[in-house]
């Protein structure tokens, strides 16, 4: 089933330390919380330097969507986070300290619980018409740049504006129509029984 997630309908949750807020975009299963999610995508607005929360057993990917970026100290190794730079992947159990470059920044976060599933993260520049195939068990598209994006196929037509997201049905094929922009693509795969046997 295709699920449209308008950004306008989401509410940020302030951090207890006062250093920013998190806006959850989507989570699986839908009724899951921090302790039992399989996967989760969100936006985090960082307003002050500070430490990231620990998520043992979770793989994380982060990309800047707004602001001047930051330096992340990940287990003692500094990594620059900028719009033009690569995405940053790290273990949720890593000790991470963020130092803002200049003013607040907003980043897009993808998380998967490693014992159940894994994810890949991609960025795709949009210009005119293109085709997209949802190949994973769960595929989330997020409009990071651009004013509007339309997805359509024989069954549905969906419109997105900036920071909207959509969860696509596995195997679905879409035509994408946009002026200029960029989408972030999170693909989530669940481990199969064969995968579980190979871990033993």
Describe this structure in a few short sentences.
This protein has 200 residues and is mainly β. Helix content is 4%, strand content 60%.
Tell how many strands the DSSP assignment holds.
17
CATH class of the largest domain: Mainly Beta
In DSSP terms (H or I, runs of 4 or more residues), the helix count works out at 1
What percent of residues adopt helix (DSSP H or I)?
Answer: under 10%
Strand content: over 45%
**Could you give the order of the helices and strands?**
EEEEEEEEEEEEEEEEEH
Contiguous uncertain segments of 5+ residues: 195-200
* Overall average residue pLDDT: 93
Please give the CATH architecture of the largest domain: Sandwich
- Measured between the Cα atoms of the first and last residue, the distance is 34 Å
Sheet with most strands: 7 strands, antiparallel
Secondary-structure-based class equals mainly beta
Rounded to the nearest angstrom, the radius of gyration is 17 Å
Instruction: Write out the CATH superfamily name of the largest domain.
Output: Jelly Rolls
CATH topology group of the largest domain: Jelly Rolls
Q: How many structural domains does the protein architecture include?
A: 2
- Shape designation: globular
Organism: Massilia yuzhufengensis
Protein name: HutD protein
